[in-house]
Amino acid sequence: MSLVFAGICSHAPGITGRAQMADQAMREEFYRAYHGMGEALAAAQPEVLIIVAAEHFANFFMNNMPAFAVGMAGSYEGPIEDPQWLGIPRVTIPGNAPLSLRLIRDMMQTVDLSYAEEWKFDHGVMVPLSFLTPRYDLPVIPVNINCQGPPLAPLHRAWALGEALRRAADSSPERIALVGTGGISHWPATPDSGRVNEPWDREFLRRWQSNDKAAMLSYTDEGTYREAGQGGFEIRTLISIAAAARGQGRVQHYRPIPIFAVGCTVATMSIGA
Amino acid sequence: MQKFLFDINRDPELQRQCRADLPAILKRYELSGEERGALEAGDIGLIYVLGANGQLLMHYAAFLGMPWADYLGAMRSGVTRHGPVRAGVYSMTTRLDEKVADL
Question: CA 20 to 30 Å from B44, out of A15, A34, A164, B67?
Fold first, then answer.
């Protein structure tokens, strides 16, 4: 078997941590779309969820920063943040260490990876899981792309990571769901938190939906920083999903919600041949 | 300075020790006088201007009991008092009096 589901979604901590500060109608519309993605994921009957995230100095720091890392643990604890602050209780989430090992070995044929048997999930993984698998019972394998501490891997390497994920998934008997989480334009945790460049986001989503590799890889970090903020570096996670899925995307929800500090996105992609 | 923030954010025991005697804990870290003073004072605005990554700083602000709106305000206040952010990629791009998230 291979991929049975692919999608992308936002992970900003305000989505759960500052839920009550948002406009109720906007919040509920977004939550419905997010839960709907969880239902679609469940309907695909995956045995494991690979989640490509952009970590935020929770496990990896500037003393030893991997461009790409894959979890290889039997289980993962999260959130690493104060559960009350994030609005998500601390739980233990099952992993799948033997599958991690097989995926990593295959991916290493084309991408140099770090791997970790110890990994605590931050909001980048926990916010999506709280909507997609709220019982935290589906085994998860985390993949991290450094979008936090420059120098960052070039976008074409994020694409290569996605290709390697797909190749490794294709050689696995398990039914695998793949979700990428990240913001598009946003300026999180700065005084500009809440700023979103909606036209930039919509253009990125247009390129992502049509799986236009050349257009997605044409962004530069300098341009992204200027137009989409430091949070825009997280497009790497979304690009890797397009590379892996090889399909066409469909956006179920996009709307900036300033108190959540991001254009709140839920989208899925068909699995191409 | 960022190493201290990274450590305290992920270590409940270190958080407990810092509540008991922050200056003693800070002696373990290589800090400039300005960084040490900002941390001892809990001056989020100055820590921000000195270049702390926001993903580290927002959790430290929460550890200090600072609500979200106050955290955003403290960073703006820091830029007003000390000038633009001096390092890193978490600089401020809006006007000093702008309220981006309606806060």
Answer: A15
